[in-house]
């Protein structure tokens, strides 16, 4: 008989084991050491033990759902499924359905207005499963990259780049309050990361453009005030970041944005094969 336990009531090693075995045949290779797994998935990813569920066959973990809550997408309290997996030989037995039912019940009990998740494009079996239980595709999350030396260069006069602290960016949250940011690029997520650098450009003592990235080359946020766009600020920041840290490859991801898509293509970025869908269900 399959039983289900909240993450706060299980051995943490079982959570990692369920994750590792459940994703052993995933589209992308998933092999994360235990310490790194908990640091990431119960850190920046925003999952919580009391919102996560492990499925057991006897004493053996055979399924896992990771869950986390925060105000999201315009401030709506949102429960996110940060990972759902079942060990291959236990699939088709209703375990995923039960885990998602429990996930939805916890969201409703905590006053959430919506539930959401990300799924890799091309994983049709998973996409159809989520559609069958009430989710719908709302955003497509695309991935772009550019080899550092292939990034277009640009010059700015009377402008300089300065390193800034993350808390200094609180004032610019209003700039993007009406723009959808995916879960793994927003300020809450970024604040839990390490090896992050933030650069800004000021004009007349006002911040007009900023970049947040990690030292691997991943750019989380690149933003210019709407009144100051198309003047070269974003490209200037990218080149400053590349040169300052000798970045060989710059990577970016973002959902449905004609403006950003046009910009990254114009400065040398190429769309990767990987893409994801953000799927939502209303409560």
Summary tags:
283 residues, twelve-stranded mixed sheet, 12 strands, 7 helices, alpha+beta
In short:
The chain is α+β, with helices and mostly antiparallel strands and 283 residues long. It has helices at 12-22, 34-41, 95-109, 124-132, 187-190, 233-245, 258-266, and strands spanning 2-6, 53-57, 60-72, 76-86, 114-120, 136-147, 161-163, 196-203, 206-214, 218-224, 249-255, 270-282.
SSE blueprint and pairings:
Elements: E1 2-6, H1 12-22, H2 34-41, E2 53-57, E3 60-72, E4 76-86, H3 95-109, E5 114-120, H4 124-132, E6 136-147, E7 161-163, H5 187-190, E8 196-203, E9 206-214, E10 218-224, H6 233-245, E11 249-255, H7 258-266, E12 270-282
Parallel strand pairs: 4-5, 10-11
Antiparallel strand pairs: 1-2, 2-3, 3-4, 5-12, 6-11, 6-12, 7-8, 8-9, 9-10
Q: What does it look like?
A:
Helix content is 24%, strand content 35%. Strands 1-2-3-4-5-12-6-11-10-9-8-7 form a 12-stranded mixed beta sheet, sandwiched between helices. The chain has 283 residues and is of the alpha+beta class. It has 7 helices and 12 strands. The protein has helices at 12-22, 34-41, 95-109, 124-132, 187-190, 233-245, 258-266; strands at residues 2-6, 53-57, 60-72, 76-86, 114-120, 136-147, 161-163, 196-203, 206-214, 218-224, 249-255, 270-282.
């Amino acid at each position: 008989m399959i039983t289900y336990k909240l993450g706060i009531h299980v051995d943490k090693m079982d959570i990692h084991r369920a994750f590792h075995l459940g994703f052993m045949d995933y589209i992308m290779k998933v092999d994360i050491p235990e310490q790194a797994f908990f640091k990431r998935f119960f850190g920046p990813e925003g999952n919580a033990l009391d919102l996560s569920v492990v499925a057991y066959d006897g004493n053996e973990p055979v399924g896992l759902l990771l869950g986390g809550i925060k105000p999201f997408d315009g401030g709506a309290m949102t429960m996110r499924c940060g990972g759902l997996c079942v060990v291959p030989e236990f699939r088709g037995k209703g375990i995923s359905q039960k885990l998602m039912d429990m996930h939805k019940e916890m969201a409703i009990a905590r006053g959430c207005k919506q539930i959401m998740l990300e799924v890799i494009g091309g994983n049709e079996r998973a996409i159809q499963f989520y559609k069958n239980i009430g989710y719908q595709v709302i955003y497509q999350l695309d991935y772009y990259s550019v080899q550092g030396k292939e990034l277009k260069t640009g010059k700015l006069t009377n402008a300089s780049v300065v390193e800034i602290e993350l808390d200094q960016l609180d004032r610019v949250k209003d700039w993007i309050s009406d723009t959808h940011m995916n879960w793994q690029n927003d300020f809450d997520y970024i604040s839990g990361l390490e090896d992050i650098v933030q650069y800004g450009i000021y004009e007349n003592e006002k911040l007009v453009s900023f970049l947040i990235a990690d030292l691997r080359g991943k750019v989380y946020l690149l933003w210019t005030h709407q009144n100051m766009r198309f003047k070269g600020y974003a490209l200037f920041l990218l080149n400053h970041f590349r040169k300052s840290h000798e970045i060989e490859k710059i990577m970016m991801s973002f959902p449905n944005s004609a403006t950003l898509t046009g910009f990254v293509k114009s400065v040398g970025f190429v769309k990767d094969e990987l893409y994801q869908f953000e799927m939502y269900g209303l409560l």
